[in-house]
From TrEMBL:
GO molecular function list: sodium:proton antiporter activity
Protein name: Na(+)/H(+) antiporter NhaA
Keyword tags: Antiport, Cell membrane, Ion transport, Membrane, Sodium, Sodium transport, Transmembrane, Transmembrane helix, Transport
Described purpose of this protein according to its UniProt entry: Na(+)/H(+) antiporter that extrudes sodium in exchange for external protons.
GO cellular component: plasma membrane
Chain's gene name: nhaA
Topology versus the membrane: Multi-pass membrane protein
Compartment(s): Cell inner membrane; Cell membrane
Chief place of localization: membrane
Length: 439
């Protein structure tokens, strides 16, 4: 075989393999529905918290259930943040491991872009928040991590509203970026937002975690065996003082991705993800949003007072400007200092739209705000309003840019559905057309 031309350059955001694109499409459909439910839950909470019946909302959020002897006498809001979000991070952990073990991102040339973009999209918003609050005092700097994460469900819901003519590589990039920075965010939570650490329960958590890992390595799929071990791991991690959502990531990383023997059917990670993702997108995240987003504007000092607060300003500017500049800047640096270039047919306006969309930092941002300032505190209320406003502005700006790009791709990607040999695989994935961007 002749060597490739010396001027050959790897392409950023090039089309992936057909199985991976088909899998991403299935995920998008689930997460898009989940995003609509998340948004509906957040709107309901906001309306209720600012209505004459706001007291009922607070009473519901503060309703305590669970055994006190196990340190699990938690309010419903705490159960949503500590318990249900562990399901969300379990799914995110499965997705990330699968991408890097068996997905298109197992190739370093494909993985470098979303990883670099995630790092850039986390660092710059954090720096912007620090700049706004450097001289504020009163513990404001503890919220530096609030604007660092991208909300998967909300961002993909916006893409679903825009339409589906955008290239699959763009949607895959956004999904992978969001998963990477959510996982980095949970590491930050574990390191920087752990108040007191109790090593006894943490060491004990390794026992059910190891048993869970042993069973899944042996491809045991019985829920009545796996679920009690997962819940026990979560409870012990919670008792240790480490945020309990870390248990979800640890459990996910123990799940094997590849099948033992070649053959039809999903692997263990794909099987569990298929089972748990609807629960995460349809129940866990919307319920958390319902309890986390219900901030009283009047209780926060009024909208005018909130918008002049350095915490809220740092969050809004960090999400809208910091995320966009961080993701876009990291992408430019990757192509500037490597031989990679954007795939043929893609434009930098596509990256601008995706970078703006990454500023939707809803779920994890709300969680970090509660951990940083304490649920129900004035600073937490200000940060929540900042998250809601910043995410809304990012969504609106991204929609303007990506709607224009979507109209462009409606004509360009007309070949997408063509399957001339009726084998179930579009021709663009079989080398029968040179079009590089259609999914």
């Amino acid at each position: 075989m002749a060597p490739p031309p010396t001027n050959h350059r790897p392409q950023l955001l090039s089309r992936g393999s057909w199985p991976e694109v088909r899998r991403i499409g299935d995920i998008l459909r689930t997460e898009t529905v989940g995003g609509v439910l998340l948004l509906s839950a957040a709107v309901l909470a906001l309306v209720w918290a600012n209505s004459p019946w706001s007291g009922a909302y607070r009473s519901l959020s503060e309703l305590t259930i669970g055994p006190a002897t196990l340190h699990l006498d938690l309010s419903l809001a705490q159960w949503a943040g500590d318990g249900l979000l562990a399901i969300f991070f379990f799914v995110a952990g499965l997705e990330l491991k699968r991408e890097f073990v068996a997905g298109d991102l197992r190739e370093p040339r494909r993985a470098i872009l979303p990883v670099a973009a995630a790092l850039g999209g986390m660092a710059l918003p954090a720096l912007i928040f620090v700049a706004f609050n450097l001289r504020t005092g009163d513990g404001a700097l503890t919220g530096w991590a609030i604007p660092i994460a991208t909300d998967i469900a909300f961002a993909l819901a916006v893409l679903g509203v825009i339409n589906t003519n955008l290239p699959a590589a763009m949607r895959t990039f956004l999904l992978t970026l969001a998963v990477v920075d959510d996982l980095l965010a949970i590491m930050i939570i574990a390191v920087f937002y752990t108040g007191s650490l109790h090593f006894g329960p943490l060491l004990l958590a390794l026992v059910p975690l190891a048993l869970f890992g042993l069973l899944v390595q042996r491809r045991v799929r019985s829920w009545w065996l796996l679920l009690p071990l997962a819940v026990t791991t979560w409870a012990l991690v919670h008792a240790s003082g480490v945020h309990a959502t870390v248990a979800g990531v640890a459990l996910a990383f123990s799940v094997p991705v590849l099948r033992r023997k070649a053959g039809p059917g999903p692997g263990m990670a794909e099987h569990l993800e298929h089972r748990v993702r609807p629960v995460s997108a349809g129940v866990a995240v919307p319920v958390f949003a319902f309890f986390a987003a219900g901030v009283s504007v009047a209780g926060a000092g009024g909208l005018g007072a909130t918008l002049t607060d350095s915490v809220a300003l740092g969050v809004v500017v960090g999400l809208v400007a910091g995320k966009a500049a961080g993701v876009l800047g990291a992408t430019w640096l990757v192509q500037r200092f490597t031989r990679a270039r954007l795939a043929e047919g893609l434009a930098w306006w596509d990256m601008v739209g995706l970078s703006l969309l990454a500023g939707i930092g809803f779920t994890v941002s709300l969680l970090i705000g509660e951990l940083a300032f304490g649920a129900g505190s004035e600073r937490d209320d200000h940060s929540k309003i900042g998250v809601l406003l910043g995410s809304l502005l990012s969504a609106l700006l991204a929609t303007v840019v990506l709607r224009a790009r979507n109209r462009h791709y409606q004509g360009v990607c007309a070949l997408e559905e063509r399957d001339s040999d009726a084998d179930g695989v579009p021709d663009v994935y079989e080398g029968q057309t040179s079009r590089a961007i259609c999914d």
